[in-house]
What we know:
The chain is α+β, with helices and mostly antiparallel strands. It has helices at about 5-15, 25-30, 55-65, 120-125, 145-150, 155-160, 195-200, 235-245, 255-265, 290-305, 315-330, 330-335, 350-365, 395-415, 440-450; strands at about 20-25, 45-50, 70-75, 90-95, 100-105, 110-115, 130, 165-175, 180, 205-215, 215-220, 225-230, 250-255, 280-285, 310-315, 340-345, 370-375, 380-385. The strands form 4 sheets. A 7-stranded antiparallel sheet has the order 15-12-14-13-17-18-16, sandwiched between helices. A 5-stranded antiparallel sheet has the order 5-6-10-8-9.
Amino acid sequence: MPEFSQSELIQAFSSLVDEGKCLSDADSLETYGCDWTRFYTPAPSLVLLPKTTEQVQAIVKKANELDTALVPSGGRTGLSGGAVAKNGEIVIALDAMNQILDFDAASRTVSCQAGVVTEQLQHYAQEQDLFYPVDFASSGSSQIGGNIATNAGGIKVIRYGMTRQWVSGLTVVTGTGEVLELNNGLMKNATGYDLRHLFIGSEGTLGFITEAKIQLARQPSDLSVLVLGVPDFDAIMNVLKTFQKAMDLTAFEFFSHVAMQHVLDHGVPAPFDTQSAFYTLIEYENISDHTLDEVMALFETCMEEGWVEDGVISQNETQAQNLWQLRERISESITPYTPYKNDISTTIGHVKSMVEEIDAQVNEHYPEFEIVWFGHIGDGNMHLNILKPESLSTEDFKARCENVSEWVYATVEKYQGSISAEHGVGLLKKEYLQYSRSEAEIQLMRQIKQVFDPKGIMNPGKVI
């Protein structure tokens, strides 16, 4: 691609956005040029903040004329480098596209711009006495467009599925600058290929999502949380089977004692005095007066079988929220240690074997690394976090962890799992895609990319 000076790019693009929405100062370039990934140095040439689909379209058309690369930027909470601009690209930040556009009460569908923050949409749904169920620790800063572009999952997938299940329509600007209105919120549409699903999870490599129609659900009633201390992975899986057989769960999370200790060090109180190797967090609806009796009977069964060592149940909404802090504040508490993150998944039946093999490999080869396990085990998704020792530089640590990733992903491939359950591929996992996708699949992805983005200007170097 041809190189342009910053002043030339400002002259070419600044008139395509509102006044004050073309940024070139050093602080803005650093802020908008990266995500939560710690291993890349942001180096964009310019930041543009469009407010409409038409402005995005004009930017993409101009970028095509000049063969200039574009990188999308949402809430910048990604963990795979998908929103990193490190080679002089222009960042298209969607922060100014933050409007709720329409609501259809009959179909329970809300239309919004891609820059709407996840929590903003959740609150809007509550105001309509409805529920947007895709939820995770970064919901206060992540944006809907980014959630869709990575097919975000989170803590309630066991009940509600991934972001994909809740997207009933999309407006996208392709790599050629064409605006597509995909599915238009229809519940039933049997008219050939559903291009909407190509853009969900595409990480901005085919085009930019500018608007979305999101399906909402009924509000869950009276959610309660149960935190249990369990001795080993066998016990975790037995507890999951016991509870799932008897009732519909809205969440089933797990975390190691190492993970919880980091959260406790940040001021969150321990749920009980007993220390266990692992903990499970179970969330469920109190759908009748008998639900609590049923839960207590299941708890007692698990205690009698030796699968549970201790436990606590929330008595009100505030206590439930406090118990959730044990799980949701893990990422925040380990961030200062520059964690190398692996976001992996397999079928639930293979979870135990896969985790035990990976754990043994890392401990054998790098006994000095602290390993933090947590995740959404009810849907087969585990987060392996390796914390950087103070004695290692970030570069050396990343290099050594890439060796770990080779073993991890080989094990994931053995169990026919995914190297990225919900964080996307981005830069960090691009070299390992073959562990989850066949060469034929990867070649088809390249061909699809060529159709939508023939000049290769949309988030280049990511995914494939």
